[in-house]
Design goal:
Blueprint (H helix, E strand, L loop, with lengths): L2 H7 L4 H4 L4 H6 L6 H17 L3 H15 L1 E2 L8 E2 L18 H10 L6 H14 L6 H11 L6 H21 L5 H15 L7 H14 L3 H20 L3 H17 L4 H24 L3 H15 L6 H6 L1 H22 L11 H11 L6 H7 L7 H14 L1 H5 L2 E4 L5 E5 L11 H36 L4 H10 L8 H12 L3 H22 L5 E3 L5 E3 L2 H6 L1 H6 L2 H12 L6 H6 L5 H4 L2 H26 L1
Antiparallel strand pairs: 1-2, 3-4, 5-6
Length: about 625
């Protein structure tokens, strides 16, 4: 049996803990947060193992592991998570990794642990697992030790903030037994709050956060709100915009807790909006238009917290909203000009170009159109998703950075949040992944337009004269071109062969919407909306593509492609920008326009081929 297996089977008792001088080990740590202490304890465990002291090594290993977990103080279901989680699924310790023997050792030894930080963690874990039953003594022990964390700014910047919040959470969860704790905690917090120095803003916000959780007396709430508002006003007078704004936001939380003071609350929202706008103007002066756009958006969000009616009229909110919106659009539009192109290492696509040209070269008409329609392959959803996921998993920057998509006129039309790399269940991953998919789709289109579609189109233009009439004949024979729409399709395709993609997409994008609508109706799917007056209107393309029935009628690759190309704000959104007159000259001749034209040609050709095959059969 290996030494490692011997260590695993080694049963520990509280007497084994007495062999460890834990305080001496902790004193050697350069930092005082629990995770850092776990590294020092783990190093000492390795030293003991090398010396052959298996018992001491195992004790230290268990203490290191239990100390390494990240605490989520208000999470009832999973308060302890891994300190580190890798993209390949590997991770550091979680509660489920400990054995029953480990918990037995912790239960027997916890009261002998001299360090309050480790004692609190072990007691809290034992309370959480509740094996064989919840032991109220462990909850009390955890709270008592959490409350030993100092109420100062340095402590709050380390583990103190989570420790005090966890103490509050535990006290609330043990019913009457926790009421005395909550009163003790409230008194300690209020006494400390009154002595906070001006430069201890972080401490202020943490104490305020704790007190918001436990203060029940409305008189105390109002006193807190007024004191914080006073501090905010002092910072405002010094033009400390960020600090004053944060204090005003904190004061609002306290006024809301009183259950009244609506006029005061809305006045503060108005003042916060003013501060955001002042900060935005400072960004513009420092030539940071992108930052200014974000700040104007925050100003707008603050004003939107004021409901319509009396208070909006009194504060002239609607006029301010209009002004901030204009300034935000101006800042966003200016920021577009400041954006820089990010260029990666160039790729030689000359072999692709040559292969595409040879693919259509010396082919007869109309057979050559079939070769053109299949010179590239539309992207597969699974393949694109794997590629995007691979990129996401290798880029920590991509996970931590949020993104904003701006239209050509400066509007923010889509946003993707940052995500927590250590949390595979972070809901923000869905949006971030969608953003990454759009980026990969854009790259894929660029490669195929430049490497395949345009080179093949040039060869055809040199060897053939494509007429609108000949295209009309093909459209009439295509099973996929709806009856009565053949001329629209033919004209749109013809302009593409003339490289007038601007005209082509204006003709073809409504026809794709009709194509989708018709397919849904043929499957008896409702494509309209009935309003309260009994007026029935047709739904737009975005709504049609999002219908559950669309997933059954169209394959997932086509559905993804059309959404990204025509109706998604993160993509070119061709159908909407064309329908609402928002498309600009450059966009109308972009790679997306060319690809969409080619995609419509492929649909028509595939339908014509199917018709000929059916006729032959």
């Amino acid at each position: 049996m290996s030494a490692e297996n011997n260590t695993e089977k080694l049963l520990l008792t509280h007497e084994d803990l007495a062999l460890i001088d834990i305080q001496k080990i902790l004193e050697s740590s350069s930092r005082e947060d629990l995770v850092s202490l776990s590294f020092s304890i783990s190093d000492e465990a390795r030293n003991e193992k090398e010396k052959g002291n298996e018992t001491s090594a195992k004790v230290l290993t268990l203490l290191a592991k239990v100390s390494s977990m990240m605490m989520h103080p208000k999470n009832k279901e999973n308060p302890f998570g891994p300190f580190m989680q890798m993209v390949d699924g590997s991770r550091s310790t979680i509660v489920e990794d400990f054995t029953d023997d480990d918990f037995s050792f912790f239960r027997e030894s916890v009261e002998s642990i001299e360090d309050f930080r480790i004692c609190a963690r072990v007691a809290d874990v034992l309370w959480f697992i509740g094996k064989p039953t919840k032991d109220i003594k462990m909850a009390h022990l955890a709270i008592d030790n959490y409350l030993q964390y100092p109420l100062d700014q340095d402590s709050m910047l380390r583990d103190g903030s989570e420790a005090w919040m966890r103490a509050i959470f535990l006290a609330k969860s043990i019913g009457k037994a926790g009421s005395e704790y909550l009163k003790k905690i409230e008194n300690s917090l209020l006494q400390t709050f009154e002595t906070i120095e001006e430069n201890e803003t972080y401490l202020h916000f943490r104490l305020s956060e704790f007190l918001l959780e436990i203060v029940e007396d409305n008189a105390v709430r109002l006193k807190m709100a007024e004191a914080i508002e006073k501090t905010a006003t002092e910072s405002f007078a010094k033009q400390q915009w960020r600090v004053s704004r944060e204090f005003y936001e904190d004061a609002i939380q306290w006024y809301l807790k009183t259950g009244g003071m609506l006029e005061k609350i809305y006045e503060l929202y108005d003042l916060i909006a003013y501060i955001w706008a002042e900060e935005a103007e400072l960004h513009i002066q420092s030539d940071n238009a992108m930052g200014a756009g974000v700040f104007f958006q925050n100003a707008i969000d603050s004003l939107r917290s004021i409901p319509r009616g009396e208070y909006r009229e009194r504060l002239d909110t609607d006029m301010k909203l209009k002004g901030f919106h204009i300034r935000m659009t101006q800042a966003n539009k200016k920021s577009i000009g400041h954006m820089k192109h990010m260029q990666t290492e160039s790729i030689d696509i000359s072999p692709i170009i040559e292969a595409s040209q040879n693919h259509v070269k010396d082919k007869s008409y109309p057979l050559v159109l079939g070769y053109l329609a299949h010179v590239a392959k539309p992207p597969g959803k699974k393949e694109l998703s794997r590629s995007a996921q691979n990129t996401m998993s290798k880029s920590i920057f991509r996970m931590l950075a949020s993104s904003v998509t701006l239209s050509s006129d400066g509007r923010a039309i889509a946003k993707a949040p940052s995500i927590n790399p250590g949390d595979p269940n972070d809901p923000a991953r869905v949006e971030a992944m969608d953003e990454e998919l759009h980026m990969h789709f854009s790259i894929w289109i660029g490669m195929n337009v430049q490497g395949s579609i345009l080179p093949a189109l040039d060869v055809i233009a040199h060897e053939h004269t494509i007429t609108e009439e000949s295209l009309l004949n093909l459209c009439k024979k295509s099973a996929l071109v709806p009856d009565g729409r053949e001329r629209f399709w033919a004209k749109g395709l013809y302009f593409g062969f003339q490289k007038d993609f601007m005209t082509a997409i204006h003709l073809l994008s409504p026809q794709l919407e009709h194509f989708v609508r018709l397919a849904l109706k043929e499957h008896v799917v409702k494509t309209t909306t009935l309003d309260s007056k009994g007026i029935e209107t047709e739904n737009g393309l975005s709504t049609l593509l999002d219908k559950l029935e669309s997933k059954e009628i169209f394959d997932e690759d086509f559905l993804m492609e059309m959404k990204m190309l025509l109706s998604s704000a993160r993509g070119p959104n061709l159908r909407n920008v064309i329908a609402h007159g928002l498309i600009e000259d450059e966009e109308a001749d972009s790679q997306y326009a060319i690809y969409f034209w080619w995609r419509m040609l492929r649909i028509m050709i595939d339908g014509a081929y199917w018709s000929f095959r059916k006729k032959d059969d």
